[in-house]
Design a protein that fits this description.
- The chain is of the alpha+beta class and 218 residues long.
- Helices cover 40% and strands 19% of the residues.
- It has seven helices and nine strands, in the order E-H-H-H-E-E-H-H-E-H-E-H-E-E-E-E.
- A seven-stranded mixed β-sheet has the order 1-2-3-4-5-7-6, with helices on both faces. A two-stranded antiparallel sheet has the order 8-9.
- Strand 2 and strand 3 form a beta hairpin.
- The longest helix has 22 residues.
- The radius of gyration is 17 Å and the shape is globular.
């Protein structure tokens, strides 16, 4: 069952919202197995993810769309993707600068995600995070439902990567289908690519074929 909040209004974020949204995303992503793998030193995690999301919010505002709620309790960063990735020649340099000595693992994740990314038009949910005090209260589902309503008007599919089984199950309740998991290294955390297909006669299209350049087993 999906729970959304009728008392929340979703709107497009602006640069003025960054000071409030930055700690929401940084705190949401600085815990869990992915954060522990990417930044093994606990004392550095929040600082690194704050710098990382300062950069990601700037990219999202410039090249994509950042949704938030009227109380700034959550944020989602979306991009439109066609058959080929958008050219951002300075992206890797910016990512390295944002994450410092932990850059190799962030660059590895970035390369893995790009290699596995579907090569057909879709909306890409790069990040979604909710204030830690308000998680499991429908904020994330409200952000998703708002975006899905707009996508439904175009019958445009959506794609994301789930970083744990709990999130994977949440996205499945919103109509996403999980593909085989991928790992950045043999000992790295698993991620599930997830696809919310177009509706054809009331049935969603299946997960697109894997990128032929991505190895199916690791």
């Amino acid at each position: 069952m999906v729970t959304t909040r009728t008392d929340l209004t979703v709107r497009q974020a602006t640069a003025d919202d960054v000071p409030a949204l930055l700690p929401v995303l940084a705190e949401a992503f600085s815990t869990g197995t992915v954060a522990e793998w990417a930044v093994p030193e606990p004392a550095d995690r929040l600082e690194v993810f704050t710098s990382y999301f300062r950069y990601m919010l700037a990219l999202g505002l410039r090249h994509g769309r950042v949704d938030t709620t009227d109380d700034l309790s959550g944020a989602a960063i979306w991009y439109r993707r066609d058959e080929t990735p958008p050219p951002h020649p300075d992206h890797l340099n910016g990512l390295e600068e944002a994450t410092g000595r932990y850059a190799p693992k962030f660059l590895l994740l970035d390369a893995m995600f790009e290699a596995r990314h579907p090569r057909l038009p879709h909306a890409y949910l790069a990040y979604i995070g909710v204030n830690s005090a308000l998680q499991s209260r429908g904020v994330g589902s409200t952000l998703l439902a708002h975006a899905h309503k707009a996508l439904a008007a175009e019958n445009l599919p959506a794609y994301l990567e789930a970083s744990n089984p709990r999130n994977r199950n949440l996205y499945a309740r919103h109509g996403y289908e999980a593909g085989p998991p991928m790992q950045p290294t043999a000992a790295g955390p698993p991620f599930w690519p997830m696809w919310r297909g177009q509706l054809n006669g009331g049935v969603r299209s299946s997960f697109p074929p894997p990128n032929p350049y991505y190895p199916r087993s690791r």
